[in-house]
Amino acid sequence: MGNHCPSITPVSIEFYGGTNQALNSSSYGQSTVPNAVICGRDCHADPNCKSFSYHRCSRVCELHRGTRRDTNLVETTGSVYFDSRQDTPNLSVEYLDDRYCSCKELLKAGYNTSGVYTIYPAAYSGDGLRVHCDMDTAGGGWVTIQRRQDGSVNFFRNWTEYRAGFGNLTGEFWLGNAALQGLTTFGGPWVIRFDFEDWYGNTAWAEYSGFQLLGGAYTLSYDVYNKNSTAGNSLWQIENRPFQTEDNHNSFFDVPSVCQGGWWYDFIPCGKVNLNGVYYSKNDQSFDSTDAIK
């Protein structure tokens, strides 16, 4: 007398996708996954899932209990909607211009020259966001958020200016705290990298993964310091600190005015790093080692 295992018939569902479309209805499940294939796998494994939308820039996967009607699909750049109806691809929306979510996507598409580009991250799907892309450093694909190279731009600015950004993307600039927050809210985890060079051409760098700006105070947050960095860990002292300017600070005394910049200052005046502080030239012998120098 033997034991017999019941046979299991595999169930297969074929999904059809409409590009630059998303279902305009509430989803019962959301997760962050690396690509649409994983999103489809999750939908296939859930008997309640009848369709799904995947948003490339934010990497958000939405599972739906129902499928589309002709009126509840919305045109959404960078998204794709899948269900089992064979006519769904006919609803795809094609764009004449290429819209990329990040500098990394531009690099993968063959844009390997550093310069100013327009990207379309999740928070800027309309007109996009003008950024400088560094396609040379550490494999390329970096959004440059700050550059100081000759002292031509004053970085002792107020809260509104730091929020909006200032300077010129082809020269010295600060991208802006609002843009930084919009970028790091979706599509992560993000890595922030600091590159330094002294007057004699010596260089150093530091990287931190899981970088974000949180809340209305643009609080600095990160997960892990890259121990291979050559510049040392200077952010541990200001982790979870709010951004401060001379007209918006929470210190016992006006640290931003003392340090002549806007930054995530600690209570110790200028702390271990003050990259938006006074820019000194080689011949100026009165600089503080934490200030911005070249």
UniProtKB/TrEMBL annotation:
<dbReference type="Pfam" id="PF00147">
    <property type="entry name" value="Fibrinogen_C"/>
</dbReference>
<dbReference type="InterPro" id="IPR002181">
    <property type="entry name" value="Fibrinogen_a/b/g_C_dom"/>
</dbReference>
<dbReference type="InterPro" id="IPR036056">
    <property type="entry name" value="Fibrinogen-like_C"/>
</dbReference>
<feature type="domain" description="Apple">
    <location>
        <begin position="5"/>
        <end position="86"/>
    </location>
</feature>
<protein>
    <recommendedName>
        <fullName>Fibrinogen C-terminal domain-containing protein</fullName>
    </recommendedName>
</protein>
<dbReference type="InterPro" id="IPR014716">
    <property type="entry name" value="Fibrinogen_a/b/g_C_1"/>
</dbReference>
<dbReference type="GO" id="GO:0005615">
    <property type="term" value="C:extracellular space"/>
</dbReference>
<feature type="domain" description="Fibrinogen C-terminal">
    <location>
        <begin position="94"/>
        <end position="294"/>
    </location>
</feature>
<dbReference type="InterPro" id="IPR003609">
    <property type="entry name" value="Pan_app"/>
</dbReference>
<dbReference type="InterPro" id="IPR050373">
    <property type="entry name" value="Fibrinogen_C-term_domain"/>
</dbReference>
<dbReference type="Pfam" id="PF00024">
    <property type="entry name" value="PAN_1"/>
</dbReference>
